[in-house]
C-alpha cells in the first residue's frame, strides 16, 4: 500500500483545494494511505474521508510572538519533521508556497516530491524570489503536474521532461445531469467574486445584452473573496438600477441543478489555471462563451465554434456579441452544449484518478 502525503495551505473552498480533497478521498478508497498536511484550518472547507489523516504543520500558538525569520524556519521544520516521521512514498504539494515548502523540507530525505502548479505563472510566479527559487528548487522535484502546456513554459525544461498535464477532476454530481427540456432566459456564471474573474466586465456586457433582450436575467453564483470585488459589483448594479435583472446569487451547493436552467454560461476571467467552474459548466452541457485567458485553460478544453466560443481577454464587445449570438441562435447553442458535455469523458473522477495513480507509481519507481 502506497503512502501519499499531500501538502497545501488548507481545504477552504477553492480550485486546488477541491482537487486535492477529491484525490485524497478517492485514493483512500483504493487502499492508499493518505495524509493531508496543512498550514491552517479554514472556516468553510471541503469534506475529507475520515480515513484521510489531517495533520497540522503550520505555526503553533506558542509561535505567534516569534519573529518573521523564526516563523519561516518553523514552517519548514514542522513539515520536514512530519516527512521524516511518516516516510511517505511521495509528497504531492499544491500551489506556489506549499511547493517551495515541500521542495525545501524534503532536501536530503530521499522522499520524492511532485509539485502541482495551479495558477497562471506569469501572474503568480513573477516576483524576484520566484526568479531565484524556480531554477534553484524546481529541478529537484521528482515531477510536476501542470494543467496546460502554457504553464510549463515558465519552468525549467528538465522538469517539463518528467512532468504531466492532468486536468482537474469534475465532481460526479455534474456528470450525466439530464438536459433541460426548456432553458430559462438566464445567463449564468459561477465562481468566487474576485478581481481576476472580471465579473465587472460581465455586468457591463450584460447591460447591452439586456437592452436587446430585456426578458433575460444574469445570475452570478459565488461567495465573497473579500478583496472588494463584491462591493464594486453591487455599486455597479445599484448605479444602473439593474437589481431586477442582475443578481449576485451567493454561493450554492446545488449548482448542478441551478446552472443547466440557463441559456448561456459566461466565463469572463482575465487569467486562471484550469477553471473548475468552466469544466463543470461544460460537463453539464451548457452553451459556453469564455475568455481565452492565460495560462491556456479555456483553449485547452474548448475548440472554438465546436464545443464553445472563445473570445479575447477583456473584450467587452466580444462578450456582449457572443452572449447575444447564443441567445438568438438556439440551434448553435444546443450543438455547442451537446459537444461540451463530452468533456465528461476526460474529466470524470475515475479517469483523472487513474492518471494520478499511474504518475505516482511511475515517479516512485523511478
From TrEMBL:
Glycosyl transferase family domain boundaries: 182-342
InterPro entries linked: Glyco_trans_1, Glyco_trans_4-like_N
Originating species: Parablautia muri
PANTHER family: GLYCOSYLTRANSFERASE
Protein name: Glycosyltransferase family 4 protein
Glycosyltransferase subfamily 4-like N-terminal domain segment(s): 14-172
Pfam families, per the entry: Glyco_transf_4, Glycos_transf_1
Molecular function as annotated in GO: glycosyltransferase activity
